[in-house]
Structures are given as structure tokens and as C-alpha cells.
């Protein structure tokens, strides 16, 4: 195998993700190619440096303060409403363009309108169900 075929497999060799056949091919190539051996050594160094990095999780008090923050709640609700409004507007515009397009067959128009109407009805039913059950949610007082 040539270097271009081996280079994508080097990280897999380090992570022990290669098949036995691939390991043999890569190791045979590494015996003959100093360039790929050097690249493997660089990947080992980078991998070792990255393994020393860790992510510090915020404690529960920080998360509770965040969740109780009015700006956090507002941004959550505003984000959901913007996504829903954008989808409704985009779907409506698509249906409008489909309806006024004279070249499209009536079968396609009817099918797409039926699918869009079904998705809209499902979305509305889920929103209504969620609004009704949120009052009686037994887990709404559970701290996350």
C-alpha cells in the first residue's frame, strides 16, 4: 500500500480500531516508510496531549441558578417559538409556491398538501397535549 492509503489508518492503529488484516498491512508499510512512522509518532504525541485534557462539569448549584434565571427561560421559549414559526412559514411558503405553480401535476400537489397537513396536525396535537399535561406533570418539581 502507498502512503496515501496508510495515512487515514494511522489513527485507527493507535486506537486499536483496525482489523487484523489492516494492522498487518499498516505495520508492514511502517517498517519500510520513515515518513509514515514520523507521522505516527506525531499522532501519538497529540493523542497523549489530548488525553490529559478534561472537561470540568459545573456543579448542581450553578445549574440550578442557570435554570431559574428568567433570561434562560425566555431564551428557551423564544428559541422554540422561533423554530416553530420558521417551520410554519417555510412550509406555508412551499405549499403556496406549489399551488400557484402551473407546471406541477395535481397529484403531486395533493400529495404534498396532504403530507404537510398531516405534519401540521400532528404538531398541533403534540403542542395541545403538552400544554394540557404540563399542569398535572408529576415531575415538574423534580430538580434536574
What would your notes on this structure say?
With about 140 residues, the chain is mainly alpha-helical. The protein contains six helices and no strands. The chain folds into two domains: about 5-50, no CATH class; about 60-135. The radius of gyration is 28 Å and the shape is flat. The protein has helices at about 5-15, 20-30, 35-50, 60-70, 70-100, 105-135.
Counted beta strands: 0
Rg, rounded, reads 28 Å
Average pLDDT number? 85
Q: Which class of secondary structure composition applies to the elements?
A: mainly alpha
Strand-and-helix sequence, N→C?
A: HHHHHH
Overall geometry comes to flat
Major sheet: none
Q: So how many helices? A: 6
- Helix amount: over 70%
Show unreliable segments: none
Keywords:
2 domains; single chain; 77% helix; mainly alpha; 144 residues
In a nutshell, what does this entry contain?
The chain is an all-alpha fold and 144 residues long. The chain has helices spanning 3-14, 20-32, 34-51, 60-68, 70-100, 106-133.
Indicate the topology:
Elements: H1 3-14, H2 20-32, H3 34-51, H4 60-68, H5 70-100, H6 106-133
Helix pairs in contact: 1-2, 1-3, 2-3, 5-6
